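Could you join me in thinking about how sequence relates to backbone shape in a protein? Label the sequence line and the structure token line clearly, so we can match residues to local backbone shapes. Once you have written the record down, we can walk along the chain together.
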Amino acid sequence: MGGLDLSREYGGVVTHAVARSFRDRDGRRRPSVHECSASPSLTNANLRKGFNLSSDMHVIEGRYLQDLLAQPQALNDTFGALDRSPELVDFASRLRRGEFQQIMLTGMGSSFHALHPLRLQLVDHGIGSTMVETSELVHYHTRVLNPKTLVIAVSQSGESAEMVRLAKVNNGAPVIAVTNTPESTLARHAAVGLVTRAGREFSVSCKTYMATLMTLQWLGDALCGQDAETSRRKMKQAASAVAAYLSDWKKRVADAAERLSGIRDLFLVGRGTSLATVGAGALVIKESDHFHAEGMSSAAFRHGPFEMLSGEVFVGVFSGDDKTRELNLGLLADIRQAGGRGELIGETSTFESFRVPECDAAIRPILEILPVQMITIALAALAGREAGKFERAAKVTTTE
């Protein structure tokens, strides 16, 4: 696409948002998020004058963006490596015979959020499970770690502090591990290891997150008795759908930036499998852009955060599954009526940046994260900073 001068298209709005002061109900001045941010780049000259996408492309074209554009290859590689080992088949048979009293689904960060679709898939097949962050499991739920509990643990590195502790405190509970690192502590201590093929990743989870979602769908299909060929057929189009969406990433980023200019708060809301996207999405926005975002269920948004709505509050509402789509659309209408800046994210979105390709429900969680990734680049463009560049955190969290 040709260069889009964001300062010409909507720079006035950006400047006004930065210059404006906000006041509490008692009249005291309250600074905007841009002013409060610990990152000086969020108040630099680029944000105040707008951002020229063509002339300043180097600002946002960092290694995180390279990882985003490499996601189709990561999915292709992961898809090609999917396998049902004899050990996995045996665990699936034991589960169906009722040998396990409970299933614990555990992870941290985006790895934890990625477990939402698997939990719902198990429930749909009459298999109860509990999702708990590994940090809580290893300190407050250790009594369930016994041979009658099947643990499904997800960690991209397999070396986070919580996973290392899980290996130490586990009292005989068999572990099915999903990780991007086959030689990790988690993989070595697992009864079954499912290894994603996302390759090395610079910082914020993107390639590994998509590959994890694909692998967890494969695992869920195996545990629920679906044949491997049907499972492969559902996921075969994931990589090409992601590639098609990313082929127009510059246009999508510019479109997202226009929707986001002047915002002070950002929420992502959804239901069902979209809970994976809103949880992981809000996390990656905070990591990528140093911009505060919250992810929650659409219902939870009505229970309090709805009171925050204003023209400076953006709410991305994921349309999600048919079962609750009308409820989500109703929330979107109410957000707009209350003065908030709500946009639909899904197959029927009005705006190209927020439109998710139509697909099988099994791969929707993979595709839903794409608009959020465009949001991370758009916010970085508006701030004139490189998205996904850690200043305080590390790729692997090794301290509890």
In short: The mean pLDDT is 87. The chain has two domains: 6-55+241-383, 74-235.
